Amino acid sequence: MLIQIILIAAIVVVSVMLTRSTANARHQAIRRLLLATFVVAAVLAIIFPDALSFVANAVGVGRGTDLLLYALVIAFVSYIATSNRRLNELGRKITLLTRELSLAEAELASVDSRVESASVEPGSTSDDTTP
């Protein structure tokens, strides 16, 4: 029962964190701290594999590998959601850039056509060869 509460709480926390904006330094710092915590936990699990089994038993999971699997599922869902949000943001930025580029090219073409029409004198023809 304890592991179910912990897993549900972890999923809720990950969901809330993923729905918030990641543009600020605080969010980046949290992600770096989580990454550092993950690295330390991974190293400790490698050095002390029995400790992972002890923690698993303490929270109601039969084996340490099962606990590790649960943690990896949460990490994987976080990664998928983060990647999806980044792809959506990149798509939005590409759309904005494409619109701005199209408008700039249209404006440049309009200016070029006005310059060309202003440079042709009224009443002159291109066949006129007299000096």
Which properties best describe this structure?
131 residues, rod-shaped
Beta-strand percentage range: under 5%
First CA to last CA: what distance? 100 Å
Mean pLDDT: 79
Radius of gyration: 31 Å
Low-pLDDT runs: none
Largest sheet: none
DSSP, total strands: 0
- How many structural domains? 1
**H/E series:** HHHH
Question: How helix-rich are the residues, as a percent range?
Answer: over 70%
> Number of helical segments?
4
The SS-based structural class is mainly alpha
Q: Which overall shape is indicated by the principal axes computed on the Cα atoms? A: rod-shaped
Task: Give an account of the 3D structure.
The protein is 82% helix and 0% strand. With 131 residues, it is an all-alpha fold. The protein has one domain. The radius of gyration is 31 Å and the shape is rod-shaped. The termini are far apart.
Gist of the model:
82% of the residues lie in helices and 0% in strands.
